[in-house]
Amino acid sequence: MIKSIKTQLIRFQFRTMLAPGRSDNSILEHQALLDALSKRDEEAASQAITRHIDNVARTIVKYKALFY
Question: Name one GO molecular function term (predicted).
Answer without folding.
Answer: DNA binding
